[in-house]
Amino acid sequence: MKAVVFDWDGTLVDSQCAYLDSWRVALAAAGRKITNPELQYAVGRAFPDVLHHFSQRLSVDPKKVEREFRKDFPVRVQAEIVRFPDAVTCAQELQKNGIDLAIATQTPRPEFNRALAVTGLDGLITTTVCRTEVARPKPAPDLYLEVCRQLQREPTDCLAIEDSRVGAASARDAGLFVVGIARSAQAKQGLNEAADIVVETLDSDMILGFCET
Fold first, then answer.
1. Residue 148 neighbours by CB distance under 10 Å
2. Which CATH superfamily is domain 3-15+81-210 in?
3. What does pTM read for this prediction?
4. 3-class DSSP state for residue 191?
5. Which residues cross the membrane (predicted)?
6. Domain with CATH 3.40.50.1000 in the chain
7. Average pLDDT, rounded, for the chain
8. What is the CATH class of 16-80?
């Protein structure tokens, strides 16, 4: 492998809790309480997909839900976002060894840029593609295909690191080798269906073992 493409939420950083909490708050403002199992639909999925799903399933006003979500999430994510030490160390070691690095994320560009700056990772990974820059979000392969195009690499020469079944399926269908990072038992079950290898922590030596240095 000549390049490594990281997912963002749940892989490099933990803003997923903020993301899910903002959905909970937005839906509650629209008069609907949601259970934790129902909320899991949002994991790894793009905002429009999740908004359509909850609006249809819970019969809520999508405009009100979106308004409440966009009011809550930016404040919450900047206060709560946390870097995963194993993933950041892995990316740093890959960079030192000359491996091309990129991010493929479902997060819209404005929100992603703010979060990237907050985490200080903007100097580590400069090739990034957001779901607003491709025709279809994950689980379609578009995000990963666009990353490979920008890196000027064939998908078969790239390794993806993903924390969700949706993201792993996207990378797999684009032709990348997929390492699933299972940060929970629930995530592990879904990743086993779509990733080539599933691990519980990211080890830079293991990832470098797949890469051409």
1. 25
2. HAD superfamily/HAD-like (3.40.50.1000)
3. 0.81
4. helix
5. none
6. 3-15+81-210
7. 91
8. mainly alpha
